[in-house]
């Protein structure tokens, strides 16, 4: 049963600080203390496996990331005597760098720079060096040489300006226009006819006129990190359930060989482990960072099941076939025998790489379409992350963009219930649904290319929007009948408002890059153009997206969903591109400027970075773990420096 979050006595600190347009929020994992020692010990080893790979993602995201981070961390930990104004600017930039894993905003994909005179930065670095800082100098290099080499990375917004550029404009290559480190000197044209043996887990590099795959595996690229990950995974195995131990062994094997067959074996073992109370995601998983949508960004999450919240989600999963049969798309695209969807509400203990400090709120894996169709998928909703988001949201945030007092009240009362419900629907009956044509060989990504991720996110969102008003939701006990209409309206209003409010995240340019943002923009843009469900209204110079017809909203979301499913099932690239180019990518900069002015007046954050719990183990004289304690650092800088192996010596 999903119930509204009652006002209870949780007076703990959630919002820790604001850094420009980012919020820093503490994540809590309240159920950890109640776990058995065996499970805590398992989590402890997996937690270290998660931390061990953190720098892989830094390196994948930008080739200069690790050096830049070293420079920053050496300065802030040896800052005695550094000019206070300069140090302030360096701290601000360093915190944003940590939250975003480098100098690219995780939502807009655009670069942000250090707002400080380069001479002042050089003086701070020199001072830190005098205080004993050790900078990542190359042989024969001096500190000024190093700073000159990294100068454009820190200060020039036009140098490597976008981490992932899926639509760089006519005549420009998506790989060349993307600053990430998944390719070096390779263009899309170069890849025509190139047989990729390790599509998910390699970097493609042009070397002596040839394209070479640098494989992410033991003995390959990222060997030192992967060796540590594997060591901790091995330590975890004896504490896992039999099914989970099998999955961990398969994961270790994949890290050893890097072979696709071993990745498939791991995915299958992982998806078949449905009942373990603890689980982990660790590896090269999501493909959003790659403009081609092929290379996996490294991430790790460690979590345990939250049994209270899982009950509601399981009810949805058990009825997956019921929903599939009633999807508003053509019968030929409906799946038969939908069975494999497993869904849990979980509390995360740690998230690194692509999933931390900025976290997703729901995950459905594996991404391999063939495995999803044959073996199903596992879906998790991150309860404690959702809770922390909700607890740290300012009430003014909802009020500012609500057309009426009633809408603001509905948002206040129901937004957390509605968003948890639709997140679950998105993951459990959304991503898991639908059938694609045989000729796509289970790989619609291959033909839909850079449009795939946004299209798939739209599909899952639309499934949730289409079914949230269905009586079935009441029959399953997910909401009370008396509240249902109001919750549906609150959800539709929040969805429409979000298309406006999310523009605050794209402060430069007139294009949306991030796939989830494109998806939401597309859906609302399409409804505005093709349905009477939402109206644009203006009052006192402010724009509002107002839901005026709930029935039309559902009906037309269903119409759009049928088309989106057809595009996916048939691999209709041109239609996908046209849909997003028309409704999902471009926006009016004047409207964005208005939204930015409104949120800035209220000092609202655009996104959130989470401080993770910290685990410590007590060991007996033989080295066996006898207790694992959890604590909450309440301090981003302390945690980031700890993860990098640096002690913190100065105040933020
Ligand atoms: Zn999704």
Nutshell version of this structure?
The protein is built from 25 helices and 15 strands. The protein has helices at residues 37-52, 54-61, 65-77, 84-99, 118-130, 143-155, 188-191, 223-236, 242-257, 260-272, 307-318, 320-325, 369-375, 383-392, 395-400, 405-431, 444-448, 452-467, 471-475, 481-501, 515-530, 550-570, 573-583, 589-602, 636-643; strands at 15-19, 22-26, 183-184, 202-207, 210-215, 278-286, 297-305, 342-353, 362-365, 378-382, 534-539, 542-547, 607-611, 614-619, 625-631. The two termini are 43 Å apart.
Report on the architecture of this protein.
With 652 residues, the chain is α+β, with helices and mostly antiparallel strands. Helices cover 48% and strands 14% of the residues. It contains 25 helices and 15 strands. The strands form 5 sheets. A 5-stranded mixed beta sheet has the order 6-7-8-10-9. The longest helix is centred in the middle third of the chain and has 27 residues, at 405-431. 51% of the residues are buried. Bound molecules: zinc ion. The site of zinc ion has 4 residues, from α16 and α18.
